[in-house]
Amino acid sequence: MTASPRVHSPLQMLSITTLVQIAREGHTLQLLNADANPRLEASAAWVASTLEHMHDHPLAYYGINTGFGDNAGRAAFAQTEDAERLSRNLLISHAIGVGDPLPYEVIRAALAIRAISLAQGYSGVRREVINTLIEMLNRGVYPVVPRQGSLGASGDLAPLAHLALPLSAPLPGENLNHPGITGWCYLNGQVVTGAEAMAAVGIPQIRLSAKEGVALVNGTAISAAIGALALHDAQNALFASRLGLVMCAEAMRGYRDAFLPHANRLRSSYQRDQAALILSLLEGSSLIRGSLETDLDPADNPPQDPYCIRCTPAVFGAVTRALAHVEAVINDELGAVTDNPLIFVDTDPHSPDYLPRQAKMISGGNFHGEPLALALDYLAAAAAEIGSIAERRIFTLTDSRLNRGLPPFLIAEPADRAGINSGLMIAQYTAAALVSENKSLAHPASVDSIPSSANREDHVSMCTIAARKAAQIVSNVQNVVALELLCASQALSLRLEMQPESRAGRGSETVLQRIRGLSLAPGHPLTVIREDVPLAPYVQTLRDALWAGQFSG
User: According to DSSP H, which parts of 192-268 are helical?
Assistant: First the structure.
């Protein structure tokens, strides 16, 4: 029996694990009730009261009675209708993204991130706005969000406008026949208008009030969603590549020395830990060689493996450290309030939220994506290195001058038919193409900036570009590691056939059984390759298993 997807509270801090469950496993969020968060109700009430008394105190409150960006300097207004039109117009005018739509999983993740951020009660939005975002997530109404158009400065303005537009009810006088006036949504796999999607599942659109439009589009929810999922996938790719390394080392009759604690403890704890993990996976292997003279091959002098094997504790340790840093940054972002301005309604002078002045609102820069931009560029570089060193192992395994007695391109042929089968020759080509593409993509986005809004927004982060590039690199690396698993499992299987008295280590034995238990299609198990066959299904099957976490832990 399959367990029902869990329901999470929007008032609990969001972890990457929970976000992946929401994005990919159908987990949902609870609706907020009136007693859920007093600060949420109080901040929304403050906005409403401030707008109501504007005639008495004609001050300029950004996003409540002023325009946005360079329009913030225009004269303040005091009509409720103008505030509603301001919020509505913000979504309509900012929904100008281009490019292919973001996938469902990113939209689900972004809806959850935005709802949880707003639910903390510093944004001045009504509870029903947050509950509408939650209902869209829970009932499968996914806005069509083009992936390009954000500078990552005032948040992900364009993509978040596309995300929020379907929940916004049109105001009197709008041309309801204008294309895109209520946005577009996926509903049961079809693209329909936002109004149609919301009506089909019984979610009322909301007539947005003051401050609510800017609260919906200010923030880093899109970048954080893409980045969190990419980080999760990069961690899975690293786990799987470690298994590929172990199979490669055994298939190559490599040396244990590089993984012993003696040298690795003299550097970082990350390198030491990676070496210990690799050594534990090699436990029980009779193929891996040690440093005893009786266990050495006279042809190997000195007894060293290529860097792609013996330097993996250093490389994997560095990658692990990088991913740990990125995880810390993203976890901070998932628990952050990233819109602007922010409302502080605590009346206790001893509270960190207390503001003594009448205007309990702060205009700051929490929406700026620099923390994510730098971290996601780091993720891109670290993930690229997983693929880079994996490709070198693929190359070594398929080259008969380097693979220590394995057949050329890992395909065993009779001498009189040598060369008829290409075997896994092109696996290395494909891996090399992906690794080379990653080198171009790894150029940092965060070092770029371009002014916008008449130079009022004079420094931007490009964090959404950093997120998309990192995600593409990770996707490429998943394919490289799938190719590595294919080549390493083929090589180890052939080595065990050549030396039937030998035994693989506990890690290789387990992963080899798991790989052989996969099916390319019903009735087509993923077996040892004996002659040329289409290899794309092998790679896709291994990539799907990797993506699902079957080689993790």
Answer: 194-201, 212-217, 221-251, 261-264
Q: Where are the alpha helices (DSSP H) in 265-369?
A: 269-281, 307-310, 312-334
Three-point CA angle 412, 416, 417, nearest 5°: 55
pLDDT in tens, 167-222: 999 999 999 999 999 999 998 889 999 999 999 999 999 999 999 999 999 999 99
Q: Which amino acid is at 489?
A: S
Closest CA to 311 of 354, 278, 269: 278
Rg of the chain taking only CA atoms, in angstroms: 28
Angle between helices 506-516 and 269-281 (to 10 degrees): 70
- CA distances, 425 to each of 14, 305, 396, 480, 483 (Å): 45, 22, 11, 14, 11
Which of these, 363, 483, 368, 493, lies nearest to 426 by C-alpha position?
Answer: 483
What stretches of 250-409 adopt beta strand conformation (E)? 342-343, 361-362
Buried b (16+ CB within 10 A) or exposed e, 294-321: eeeeeeeeebebeebbbebbbbbbbbbb
Q: Give CB contacts under 8 A, 24+ apart, made by 102-107.
A: 102/145, 102/146, 102/147, 102/159, 102/222, 102/226, 104/142, 104/186, 105/23, 105/24, 105/229, 106/23, 106/145, 106/222, 106/225, 106/226, 106/229, 107/142, 107/143, 107/145, 107/163, 107/225
- pLDDT, tens digit, 9 for 90 and up, residues 322-338: 999 999 999 999 999 99
Average pLDDT over residues 151-176: 93
At 330, the amino acid letter reads: I
pLDDT digits (tens, 9 = 90+) for 355-412: 877 668 888 888 999 999 999 999 999 999 999 999 999 999 999 999 999 999 999 8
Question: What distance in Å separates the CA atoms of residue 346 and residue 360, rounded to the nearest whole number?
Answer: 9
Q: How many beta carbons lie within 10 A of that of residue 335, not counting itself?
A: 15
Task: Give CA–CA dist 344/496, Å, rounded.
Answer: 67
Q: Are 23 and 109 in contact (CB under 8 A)?
A: yes
Which region, left, alpha or beta, applies to residue 253 given φ > 0 means left and ψ of -120 to 50 means alpha? left
This prediction's pTM: 0.94
Structural domains for the chain: 7-219 (1.10.275.10), 230-335+346-547 (1.20.200.10)
**Which pLDDT score, from 0 to 100, does residue 469 have?**
98
Q: How many helices (H) and strands (E) does the chain have?
A: 18, 11
61, 62, 307, 538: which one is catalytic? 62
Enter the tokens of residue 402: 């380097």
Residue 538 among the catalytic residues: no
Instruction: Give the 3-state secondary structure of residue 161.
Output: helix
Long-range contacts of 353-359 (CB under 8 A, 24+ apart): 353/39, 358/57, 359/59, 359/61
Contact between residue 89 and residue 114 where contact means Cβ atoms under 8 Å apart = no
Please, which residues bridge with residue 187 across strands?
190
d(CA 497, CA 525): 19
Token pair for 137: 């997530």
- Pairing state between β 342-343 and 7-8: unpaired
